[in-house]
Design a protein that fits this description.
Blueprint: H1 3-16, H2 26-31, H3 38-45, H4 47-58, E1 69-70, E2 78-79, E3 84-85, H5 87-97, E4 104-110, E5 115-119, H6 120-136, E6 144-147, H7 153-165, E7 168-171, H8 178-188, E8 192-196, E9 198-201, E10 204-207, H9 209-216, E11 224-228, E12 242-244, H10 245-251, E13 261-262, E14 266-272, E15 280-285, H11 286-300, E16 309-312, H12 319-331, E17 335-340, H13 350-358, E18 362-365, H14 367-376, E19 391-394, H15 401-411, E20 418-420, E21 455-458, E22 469-475, E23 485-486, H16 490-497, E24 506-514, E25 520-525, E26 529-532, E27 535-538, H17 539-547, E28 552-562, E29 566-575, H18 583-596, E30 605-608, H19 622-630, H20 644-660
Parallel strand pairs: 4-17, 6-7, 6-8, 7-14, 8-11, 11-12, 16-17, 16-18, 18-19, 19-20, 29-30
Antiparallel strand pairs: 1-2, 3-13, 4-5, 9-10, 14-15, 15-23, 21-22, 22-24, 24-25, 26-27, 28-29
């Protein structure tokens, strides 16, 4: 794209910011699964009955539940407690039995160009064999199995094999250090661990098994380590403990009937990474979780499994991958794309190449990735045919309006509704979202709760609902896919989520505001709020104002201690390619923030950064930015997509300090 065309696009995006709402295209609405707003009224009239109807309609039950919610012991809620089902059977067996076994479950692409199309029948066969292999290794119902794998099909196989026999899987994101894996295996008392010989990233292969061995040797509970030979590099194997995945699968019996599980039987633990405390083991159970992810995946993405090719560009190591790469899509019989690799390897257009090659119709991605693509330029996606896309989604953090509009214009060609979704590891499934055939969207707002979910913005001190304005986001009633506790930490569960406003109201931990139309704008974590001279500002709000500047690609904002104002705003800013930073540009950016929010919101300090510290899933690690700006020790940075980013930032801050002295 020429510079002139780029400028035209910028002007279009700036003018679009004045448009209040984007209505669903008529052609989309006419074909949507849900196009009648009455679905909200039906769900609100009797949420428990509505969710029970969804559970019965969308899932196959060995014993159908007669009751939805058991609230006899809040906040330890139960859903569909007298029902029995198997998550693996709902994801695989029923599709094969219905004659859909030859449908592709995953188009898998490796970063070196390898390709595998795995059908439902093939996935079903592999899962059965590995489930039997786990049983042969002594894994039983209720045992915990750790999974530490990259984005390869075996990660889904391992999860579904555990679900098939009632083992509880504990997936650890492949970007975490082996020390983090050990911590999670120790907390959960894992009996087995499934890992890999090595992992690839941007053309390099890192040995994984030796690092795992260093950490696991003294772990008493761990009896078996199963090693997937993915890269082919040599790795040490301890006799009596370690086995190769392919060997135990080949030796296992081919048939393993799915065992019916109580609806409240634990399906998985997923540990969140804490910055100051030990990680929290979020516990999800089978029936409620499967109901939540199957319903939201089907209706939020308007899924047509016969024709759609769906791509959630997350990692299975995070809850987004659990819910919207594995369980939700497979339960709905979807064909998905699974990509093992970075967004810029082997080139910066690889995402768009994948969409073009597989004719993907739905893309679900993080705002951080979208802002990165903005920085690289619209001319890259414009080289590829993205006409197959019909729906776009965002997940992981609030999306600023400028990125939303670029996504809409450049990637969606102005024809694709955008579902900006809000949810958490704890919620299990999407909670606040547009319905693409019903909801008029506003760039930057997740809009309204999914049917059957009740959310409010309440005052920080009194907990009273706020009609318009800013406060704390809460969920007002239980929902099926909610966490059932923190693994082996009941007191911490109550203290974290249900101590402030009582056991019937879930404290999300996010600040939000509600506008005159009742739309919700999630601002960010409560601790991502800066208090400047008594003005409470969300970091996301200031970041959105900064990236509205035409020369800015991305920004991350933190609060720093300040003698005069209590806190001052410090902004880490990444410029568009070819832009030189200058004192004049600093003042221009500060002026834009002043115009959009107010003079009190102008950054006191701007630090230029070629990139920002991000996890491999694309989340900006603002905690590390706070540490580096305040001169504190950084601690573990192994989870970052590029750990070198922190070294570069440290060098720049040191240079800044030298100049000031």
């Amino acid at each position: 794209m020429s510079n002139e065309k780029s400028s035209d696009l910028e002007r279009q995006l700036e003018s679009m910011l004045e448009i209040e709402k984007f209505e669903p295209p008529v052609s989309f609405r006419e074909q949507a699964l849900w196009s009648d707003p009455e679905v909200y009224e039906q769900a609100a009239a009797d949420p428990e009955a509505w969710w029970l109807g969804q559970a019965r309609e969308l899932l196959d039950w060995d014993t159908e539940p007669s009751q939805a919610l058991d609230d006899s012991n809040p906040p330890f809620y139960k859903w569909f407690a007298d029902g029995r089902l198997n998550a693996s059977a709902n994801c695989l067996d029923r599709h094969v039995e219905a004659g859909r076994g030859e449908r592709v479950a995953y188009h898998w692409r490796g970063e070196e160009g390898e390709q595998r199309d795995i059908t439902y029948a093939e996935l079903h066969a592999e899962v059965q064999r590995f489930a039997n292999a786990l049983k042969d290794l002594g894994v039983e119902k209720g045992d915990v199995v750790g999974i530490y794998l990259p984005m390869i099909p075996e990660v889904a196989v391992s999860m579904l094999a555990c679900a098939r026999i009632g083992a509880i899987h504990n997936v650890v994101f492949g970007g975490f250090s082996a020390e983090s894996v050990r911590e999670r295996m120790e907390f959960s008392e894992a009996k087995a661990l499934v890992t890999v010989d090595g992992a690839r990233r941007k053309g390099k292969t890192a040995p994984i098994k030796p690092a795992v061995d260093e950490q696991m040797d003294e772990l008493a509970s761990l009896e078996t380590i199963v090693v997937v030979r993915h890269t082919g590099i040599d790795c040490p194997m301890r006799e009596g403990r370690d086995v190769f995945y392919d060997e135990v699968v080949d030796a296992a019996e081919p048939e393993c009937p799915a065992e019916p599980m109580e609806a409240e039987h634990p399906l998985f633990i997923l540990y969140t990474s804490g910055s100051t405390a030990k990680p929290k083991g979020i516990l999800h159970t089978t029936g409620g979780y499967m109901t939540g992810v199957t319903a939201t995946h089907r209706y939020v993405f308007d899924l047509k499994p016969e024709s759609d090719v769906y791509w959630c560009a997350a990692d299975v190591g995070w809850v987004t991958g659990h819910s919207y790469i594995v369980y939700g899509p497979l339960a709905n019989g979807a064909t998905s794309v699974m990509w093992e690799g970075a967004p810029d390897h082997p080139h910066q257009g690889i995402w768009w190449e994948l969409i073009q090659d597989y004719k993907a119709t739905i893309l679900y991605a993080a705002p951080t990735a979208i802002r990165t693509f903005i920085k690289w330029g619209a001319e890259i996606p414009e080289k590829f045919d993205l006409s197959s896309l019909r729906l776009l989604g965002t997940v992981g953090e609030p999306i600023n309006p400028k990125a939303w509009l670029w996504y809409h214009e450049v990637i969606g060609g102005e024809r694709c509704p955008i579902v900006d979704t809000w949810w958490q590891t704890e919620t299990g499934a999407i909670m606040i979202t547009p319905l693409p055939g019903i909801t008029a969207t506003k760039p930057g707002s997740a809009t309204t709760p999914f049917p059957g979910v009740q959310a409010s913005v309440v005052g920080e001190s009194d907990g009273q609902p706020i009609e318009t304005g800013q406060g704390l986001l809460v969920l007002e009633r239980p929902w099926p896919s909610m966490l059932r506790g923190l693994y082996k930490e009941d007191d911490r569960f109550i203290e974290t989520y249900f101590s402030r406003f009582g056991t019937e109201r879930y404290l999300v931990g996010d600040a939000a505001r509600v506008d005159a139309d009742g739309y919700l704008w999630v601002i960010g974590r409560i601790d991502d709020v800066v208090n400047v001279s008594g003005h409470r500002l969300s970091t996301a709000e200031v970041e959105s104002a900064i990236v509205a500047h035409e020369k800015v690609a991305e920004a991350a904002v933190i609060g720093q201690s300040d003698e005069d104002t209590g806190q001052a705003i410090c902004a880490f800013v990444t410029l568009r390619g070819g832009t030189e930073h200058s004192d004049e540009l600093v003042e221009d950016i500060r002026a834009v923030v002043g115009e959009r929010i107010g003079k009190f919101a102008r950054p006191k300090r701007i630090i230029w950064s070629d990139d920002l510290p991000k996890t491999r899933s694309g989340k900006i690690m603002r905690r590390l930015l706070r540490d580096i700006a305040e001169g504190r020790a950084l601690g573990d940075v192994t989870t970052l997509r590029d750990p070198e980013v922190m070294a570069e930032l440290e060098s720049k801050i040191a240079e800044e300090a030298d100049k000031e002295s």
